Amino acid sequence: MGLLDSIKDAGIVGAGGAGFPTHVKLDCRVEYMLVNAAECEPLLATDKHIMNSHPDEVLEGLRAVAEHVGAGHTFIAVKAVNEKETFSMKDAIGRSGFRAEVFPLDNYYPAGDEQMIVYDITGRTVPPSGIPLEVGAVVSNVATMWNVSEALRGRPVTHKFLTVTGEVARPAVLKVPIGTPFTDCIAFCGGVRTEPFKIIDGGPMMGAVSDGSDVNSKYVTKTTSGIIVIPAAGNFDSRTHDTAIRKILNRAKSACIQCSFCTDLCPRRLIGHKLRPNMVMRCMSAMDFESPIPDSPILEEALICCECGVCETYACPMSLSPRQVNKYIKGRYAGRKYKRPDEPLIPVPAREYRKIAPSRIMARMGMYDMYGNKVRDFAEFTPARVRIPLKQHIGAPAKPLVEAGDRVSAGQRIADADGHVSANIHASVDGVVTEVGSAIEIKADA
Ligand code: SF4
Ligand code: SF4
Predict the structure, then answer these.
(1) Ligand 2 in reach of 261 Cβ (< 6 A)
(2) Which of 6, 127, 418, 419 is the most buried (most CB within 10 A)?
């Protein structure tokens, strides 16, 4: 079986982002194979754990992938401040004899945005609304490389590494079966330390915030990188989660002073994209909430916003939310394609001086105390039941192969990829299927 078939068979999707099927992404030939090991979301320690505990497996996966895509240059992008992880990966490279290099990233947010990684390593700007392939590169997460090494041994994706931190008694990196309830992960880490609370699914910058009461309906998927418990008030994420878009737009109308700090610090702007959140804010402030969004080359710039959040968490002195406004415009423009301007992409020379330290962002967000609590523990456990969604990836949901009452074993395929852009799903525990709907629920053997 070829590498791509093994990857597809194993149901691998991007472990660090939206879940793009890896067999589709790697069906290419490129000059640069880049591993995203930046872990740029503050508070998370998942990728660091993988680099420290499984460096040889990461390298094994990387070697197979780099050879497959014919890369002349192979880099693992690690922040230079992460000295232990840098040493671990360099040591593994030395043992393997494989020609790869560790690239020392600066400690800024969002160093792990794949377009930043491509720019920092190659000096090339991925075109707006484009992908790294357009400049001869492919970027994969370090956890995806670990999954590839597992696939080379015939083992599909059944487990996930994730960080559980914030207001829990014992923050830890966990390795749990896919489909594990969030409540079990939090309980395993000693339970919630604050009431009322909210949950972030992912990192504090780009993760999805929900009320604590929603935690019972959340389960670990192939893309879950972290679970962060935060107080329900008194920090940026809780405030934004509670603010309606109408209020956000009204505030923009009345309080935007057009200082353009949001544009000056926008990471995509700094690598040369024509993205000017201050101009988008100005345009939106002239409009009624209910009126249709007009055709406008300025408003269309919102389509190339990666929603990193630098503008609203750090840049804006008036506590406005250009990111939420961009997100709103994207929703209203649903289906519209961004028209690339016929202009050269010119990075901003001052970029080097406008990189923002994660600690500064955390301080602005009212989460600096959590930033200081480094996650060092690691644990594994198996829950009493798992609920495995048929759609954990970009593309079509998988088609179930089992019915309620079937006995399954860990690693058994329980749903087939539905077409090329889709992914197989496997049982993550031994047990009995209790429900098949938009997800497959399995009661684990005692
Ligand atoms: S969220 Fe703000 S800073 Fe980030 S890309 Fe969008 S406009 Fe730029
Ligand atoms: S930083 Fe804030 S106040 Fe300044 S232009 Fe941007 S949205 Fe307006």
Answers:
(1) yes
(2) 6
- CA 137 to chain CA centroid, Å, is 19
| Alpha helices per DSSP H over 78-192 | 83-96, 114-122, 142-152, 182-188
What's the gap in Å between 334 CA and the centre of ligand 2? Answer: 25
pLDDT in tens, 88-122: 999 999 999 899 999 999 999 999 999 999 999 99
Instruction: Name every residue whose Cβ is closer than 8 Å to that of residue 365 and which is 6 or more positions away in sequence.
Output: 204, 235, 236, 237, 313
Ligand 2 atom, smallest distance to 257 CA: 3
pLDDT, tens digit (0-9, with 9 covering 90-100), for 37-94: 999 999 999 999 999 999 999 999 999 999 999 999 999 999 999 999 999 999 999 9
Indicate the SS3 state at residue 444.
strand
The reply to whether 388 falls in a domain is no
* CB contact set of 438 (below 8 Å; sequence gap of 6+): 389, 390, 391, 397
Question: Could you list the residue range(s) of the whole structural domain that residue 175 is in?
Answer: 160-235+366-383
Residue 262 Cβ contacting ligand 2 at under 6 Å: yes
Q: Which of 106, 129, 152 is the last residue of a domain?
A: 152
Q: Which two three-digit tokens encode residue 28?
A: 């290419």
Nearest-10 crossing angle of helices 277-285, 322-332: 70
Whether residue 37 lies inside any domain: the answer is yes
Distance from the CA of 174 to the center of ligand 1, in angstroms?
A: 31
Q: How far is ligand 1, taken at its centre, from the CA of residue 231, in Å?
A: 25
Ligand number nearest to the C-alpha of 306: 1
User: How far is the C-alpha of 182 from the C-alpha of 173, rounded, in Å?
Assistant: 13
Instruction: Count the domains in the chain.
Output: 4
CA neighbor of 38 nearest in space, from 23, 25, 50, 28: 50
Q: Is 418 in the same domain as 319? A: no
Ligand 1 centre and the CA of 267: distance in Å? Answer: 7
